[in-house]
Amino acid sequence: MSSSSTPSNTTATAQIGVTGLAVMGSNIARNFARHGYTVAVHNRSIAKTDALLAEHGSEGTFVRSETIAEFLDALEKPRRVLIMVKAGAPTDAVIDELAEAMEPGDIIIDGGNSLYTDTIRREKAIRERGLHFVGAGISGGEEGALNGPSIMPGGPAESYKSLGPLLEEISAHVDGVPCCTHIGPDGSGHFVKMVHNGIEYSDMQLIGEAYQLLRDGLGKSAPEIADVFAEWNTGDLDSYLVEITAEVLRQTDAKTGKPLVDVIVDEAEQKGTGRWTVKSALDLGVPVTGIAEAVFARALSGSVPQRKATVGLASGELGTAPTDAAQFTEDVRQALYASKIVAYAQGFNQIQAGSAEYDWNVTPGDLATIWRGGCIIRAKFLNRIKDAFEADPGLPTLLAAPYFRSAVEAAIDSWRRVVSTATALGIPIPGFSSALSYYDALRTERLPAALTQGLRDYFGAHTYERTDAEPGQKFHTLWSGDRSEVQA
Ligand code: 6PG
C-alpha cells in the first residue's frame, strides 16, 4: 500500500471522505484506508488531521485537506462524505457547508448518534437539493470503528448501491456475513441505532443488578464476581458486555490497591440515546419497561440530594442471605438471561412499531444478523433472534418464539427466586423485577385493565368494549343515572 498524505489540489483520487477526526472519525478513516481505499480526511482544525497523518499515515493512502473545497476536490464522483461530528447543531453546520458545495448524486453520510427525527428532516432537505443523505448508525466504540463496527445505514436504496459495498467491507463479519445492511429509508438507520442503545442500557442495568446480587446477597468480592461473569460468558450469556464486565471487575486500582469498581463513583451518566428510546416508545405506545427502568436507574443513581436525604431509612425486617451460593449464582444467571430476552423482545417490538409508523419496512431478522458482531450488544443469542425472525418475520414477540419460550420456561423458577430473594434482602432490582412483571403481564389472561376502563367510563364517560360484543363496539354505563348500559 502506498503511503501517507498526498498534497492538496491533486486530481480526485479518494473513494471516501471523512470529516470530523475525533477518535471515532479517525478510526473509521483508518479502517477504510487499511482496506485499501484512498481516504480524504478533513477536520475543522487541521491539527487533528495532521496528528492522524503523523501517527497513522503509513497505514494506507490518505488525502490531507485543509478546506471543504480541497476535501471535495479530492473525492471521486459521485462523492461519498462521512460526517463524524457531534450530533445536533454541529452536524447541521457541516451538512449545510457540504450541501452548498456538493453536486447532484453526491452522498452525505451522517455516522453520528443523531436523533432519527433530525435525520428524517435532513434527508428530506438534502433530497430536495438533488443529493443523497444517509443516516448511518455505527456501533462498536473506538475499537469497533477501527477493526469492524456494526453499521446501520438508512436513506435511499439507490445510494446504498454505491455506498453499501464500502461499508460492508469495513464492518465486522460473522460467519462471513457483514454486520452492515441497508435498513430502510430516511431516519430508519438512526432509529434502530437508538433502540440498539436502549437495549445496551437495559443489558448494562441487568448486568449491574446481577453484580449487586452477588456482591450484597452472597458477599462476593469484585474479582470473585469477575470469575462468575467470565464463566457465564462461556454459555448462553456469551456477549461482549458480559465479557468486559469480567475485565472491569478484575481491574485493580493502582492508587489504592482496591478493585477499581469499588473506587468509581456510583453515579451513571448518559448522553441521551436511552432517553430518546424511551421517549419514542412512549409516543409509539410500546412498553419498553426494561429500557425505561435502565434509564431511570441511571437518573436515580445521579439523584444525589435524594440519596443523601434517605441514608439510613428503615429497611424493615430483612430476610437471610441465600445459603446455597452455587444455586443462587445459577439463579442469578438464569434471571439475567430471561430478563435480557425480555429487553430484546421489547426493543424489537419498538423497531417493528417504528417501522410501521414511518413505513420503513425494516426486517427485524436482518437487524439481528448485523448485531451479531461489531456492536456493543453483540451476543451469541442474536443468532437465535435471527432464526426466530427468519422462521416468522411477523413474530409478535420474541417471547413466543419456540427457542425463547423454552429458555424462559427453564429460567422461570430461578427468576422468581431471585426477585423474591432480592426483595427480602432489600436489594433494588428494577430491571429483573420489571422484566418478570412484563412477562407475567403478557401471559396473564385477564388484566386489571378491565377495571381501568370501568373507572374511565365512570368518571369521564370514556366508554368500554365488552368481551361478548364485536370488537370496536363501544358501551357506556349511565353511572349517575339508572346505571343501565347504552351503546355509545
Ligand atoms: C455504541 C455505543 C455508543 C456509546 C453511546 C452510549 O453503539 O458504540 O452505544 O454509541 O457508547 O453513546 O453512551 P451513553 O451511555 O453516554 O448514552
TrEMBL record:
<comment type="function">
    <text>Catalyzes the oxidative decarboxylation of 6-phosphogluconate to ribulose 5-phosphate and CO(2), with concomitant reduction of NADP to NADPH.</text>
</comment>
<keyword id="KW-0570">Pentose shunt</keyword>
<dbReference type="InterPro" id="IPR006183">
    <property type="entry name" value="Pgluconate_DH"/>
</dbReference>
<comment type="subunit">
    <text>Homodimer.</text>
</comment>
<keyword id="KW-0311">Gluconate utilization</keyword>
<dbReference type="InterPro" id="IPR006114">
    <property type="entry name" value="6PGDH_C"/>
</dbReference>
<dbReference type="InterPro" id="IPR006115">
    <property type="entry name" value="6PGDH_NADP-bd"/>
</dbReference>
<keyword id="KW-0560">Oxidoreductase</keyword>
<dbReference type="InterPro" id="IPR006184">
    <property type="entry name" value="6PGdom_BS"/>
</dbReference>
<comment type="similarity">
    <text>Belongs to the 6-phosphogluconate dehydrogenase family.</text>
</comment>
<comment type="pathway">
    <text>Carbohydrate degradation; pentose phosphate pathway; D-ribulose 5-phosphate from D-glucose 6-phosphate (oxidative stage): step 3/3.</text>
</comment>
<dbReference type="InterPro" id="IPR006113">
    <property type="entry name" value="6PGDH_Gnd/GntZ"/>
</dbReference>
<protein>
    <recommendedName>
        <fullName>6-phosphogluconate dehydrogenase, decarboxylating</fullName>
        <ecNumber>1.1.1.44</ecNumber>
    </recommendedName>
</protein>
<dbReference type="Pfam" id="PF00393">
    <property type="entry name" value="6PGD"/>
</dbReference>
<dbReference type="Pfam" id="PF03446">
    <property type="entry name" value="NAD_binding_2"/>
</dbReference>
<dbReference type="GO" id="GO:0004616">
    <property type="term" value="F:phosphogluconate dehydrogenase (decarboxylating) activity"/>
</dbReference>
<feature type="domain" description="6-phosphogluconate dehydrogenase C-terminal">
    <location>
        <begin position="189"/>
        <end position="480"/>
    </location>
</feature>
<keyword id="KW-0521">NADP</keyword>
